[in-house]
Design brief:
single chain; 419 residues; seven-stranded mixed beta sheet; globular; binds 4'-deoxy-4'-aminopyridoxal-5'-phosphate; PyrdxlP-dep_Trfase_small; pyridoxal phosphate binding; diaminobutyrate-2-oxoglutarate transaminase activity; EC 2.6.1.76
């Protein structure tokens, strides 16, 4: 006779084997930082849809305009047609995000999800430069379609897909050598040496924090040096802010503290603010060299997502309350994680802002903590090539008390695993 847990896995067997989520529960309702399974069990969510729910579940300030839009029978699907909802979003994005930061980008809606944003970035970079190669970094994650997979530094995820579609050359990410900066001297030398086989690339694509690849965080100076290297060689710098963007590290764009302006920025996950599919590719204006119809697709005009995206910008980005909360809550979290790091040999604190976690020498520890946390009502994911890090990414709106509750559960789970 199946236990409730095996029954849940049995019920889900019609899904492909790639869907391997470790949580044996059937989730039904959700509010703020909490999700509830159908049997009424409450779970504190330190996962936030892998960064798609930065403002928590079902935030009333987003739900109301969404419901108004739907009950008003406004246009839901629109491809490239201009709509009021799209115009409102573009106006708000310019006024609230780009303008105050002195950023000048053209906005592309590349398709519904993060990988579409990366594909558009890679394609336009190759078109504008007339070059082919793209440099990406060790343990990078940029998506699961063939172009973004070609720049993803994870052999397991690439294993069955065959040869990447074009040549992507990996370079060591900052902190790849545990605490040592990976410099760019060798890369620049190779680019300048026509016999090296490493031609000057079209672009370099980088995450400021490796959300899937183990939570290593690039230092601001390293990002500035990378930016300068790209400028010297007229190589386009693509920042993939799909996971680290929309406030996750404390500023709207994760690269802001470095004071750089990437040529191309990829955004998705929390841009709609409500877990609805939406993606943007931001291009320096002179890179808008698309011909009409050269990059299109059916679901790049999802108007309910424009509505919640606009509401999210108005609600969370017209004053600094959210940013202050991220700063305060990440400090609170780091104190607790330091406690774990100090008590476990070889454990390391990783990440930045509320995209953070602890990596363990023994990769199995992270998975065991994930399971022990679930038993206690806490949802945490793992990250890294061996899933060696526990990954903590609560809603950016989490209160001090809610975070304290989650920290207690996490410490209890860690204690039970490491006893
Ligand atoms: N880039 C980064 C940095 C990501 O974290 C992800 C998703 N984890 C993607 C791209 C791909 O986004 P999506 O899953 O929406 O295609």
């Amino acid at each position: 006779k199946p236990t409730p847990e095996t029954q849940i896995f049995h019920d889900r067997e019609s899904q492909v084997a790639s869907y391997c989520t470790e949580w044996p529960a059937v989730f039904d309702t959700a509010r703020g930082c909490y999700q509830y399974s159908e049997d009424g069990t409450r779970y504190l969510d330190f996962f936030s849809g892998a960064g798609a729910l930065n403002y928590g579940h079902n935030h009333p300030a987003l739900r109301k305009p969404l419901l108004d839009y739907l009950t008003g029978e406004h246009v839901t699907h629109s491809l490239d047609t201009f709509t009021v909802a799209k115009r409102n979003f573009l106006e708000a994005f310019d006024r609230i995000v780009l303008g105050p930061r002195g950023l000048d980008y053209k906005v592309q809606f590349p398709g519904p999800t993060g990988t579409n944003s990366v594909e558009a970035a890679l394609k336009i970079a190759r078109k504008c430069t007339g070059r082919e190669q793209v440099v990406s970094f060790t343990n990078a994650f940029h998506g699961m379609t063939l172009g973004s997979l070609a720049v993803t530094g994870n052999s397991m995820k690439r294993a069955g897909a065959g040869t990447p579609l074009y040549h992507a050359s990996p370079a060591p990410y900052d902190d790849y050598f545990d605490g040592q900066t990976a410099d760019f001297l060798w890369l620049e030398k190779a680019w300048e040496d026509s016999g090296s086989g490493l031609a000057v690339p079209a672009a370099v694509i980088v995450e400021t924090v490796q959300g899937e690849g183990g939570l290593r965080a690039a230092r601001m100076n390293w990002l500035r040096e990378l930016h300068a290297l790209c400028r010297r060689h007229e190589v386009l710098l693509i920042v993939d802010d799909v996971q680290a963007g929309c406030g996750r590290t404390g500023t709207f764009f994760s690269f802001e503290p470095a004071g750089i302006q990437p040529d191309i920025v990829c955004l998705s996950k929390s841009i709609s603010g409500y877990g609805l599919p939406m993606a943007l590719t931001l291009l320096r204006p002179e890179l808008d060299q698309w011909d009409p119809g050269e990059h299109n697709g059916t679901f790049r005009g999802h108007n309910p997502a424009f509505v919640t995206a606009t509401a999210a910008l108005e609600t969370f980005w017209t004053d600094d309350r959210l940013q202050r909360n991220v700063a305060d809550r990440s400090e609170q979290l780091q104190d607790a994680l330091n406690h774990i790091v100090e008590s476990v040999d070889g454990a390391a604190l990783r990440g930045r802002g509320l995209l953070t976690g602890v990596a363990f020498d023994d990769a199995e520890v992270a998975g065991k903590i994930q399971a022990a946390a679930f038993e206690r009502g806490l949802l945490v994911e793992t990250s890294g090539p061996e899933s060696e890090a526990i990954k903590i990414m609560p809603a950016l709106t989490i209160t001090e008390d809610e975070l304290a509750e989650g920290i207690d559960l996490l410490l209890a789970a860690t204690g039970a695993v490491l006893k």
